[in-house]
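Structure first, sequence second, as always.
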């Protein structure tokens, strides 16, 4: 009993899909899609050279097109921040003198304890400051 070429291509596609799931490397998925394209060519009666050529072209095209898009999405900054992350970079008003050891600011409508980023800095009541980070329940400002 002889197995058709398209079946071998599908077995190869499944074989390439296994490392995709285990390693989460999308390139294996693209090679798997190329193998499915090779199976389609084999099922339509294309020769071995055509099958391998379609596999290579589809795999390389997917890697060339999809991989840069995936990298751009992976490294892109989140569009929505919440909680204390949303407070970083915002401006606040000094309510009580702020220095390295403490003070109070009005941030996002609430009174926060604050301290300066630089121990040499001091901000007086009414000044506008920028929130650099949130350290526990204390805003670090400059």
């Amino acid at each position: 009993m002889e197995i058709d070429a398209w079946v071998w291509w599908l077995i190869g596609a499944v074989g390439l899909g296994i490392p995709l799931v285990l390693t989460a490397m999308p390139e294996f998925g693209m090679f798997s899609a190329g193998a499915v394209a090779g199976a389609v060519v084999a099922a339509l009666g294309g020769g071995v050279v055509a099958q391998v050529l379609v596999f290579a072209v589809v795999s390389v095209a997917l890697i060339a097109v999809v991989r840069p898009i995936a990298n751009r999405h992976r490294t892109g900054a989140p569009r929505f921040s919440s909680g204390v992350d949303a407070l970083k970079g915002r401006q606040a008003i000094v309510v009580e003198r702020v220095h390295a050891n403490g003070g109070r600011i009005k941030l996002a409508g609430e009174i926060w304890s604050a301290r300066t980023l630089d121990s040499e800095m001091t901000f007086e009541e009414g000044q506008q400051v920028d929130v650099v980070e949130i350290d526990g329940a204390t805003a670090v400002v400059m």
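Margin note: DSSP finds three helices and five strands in the chain.
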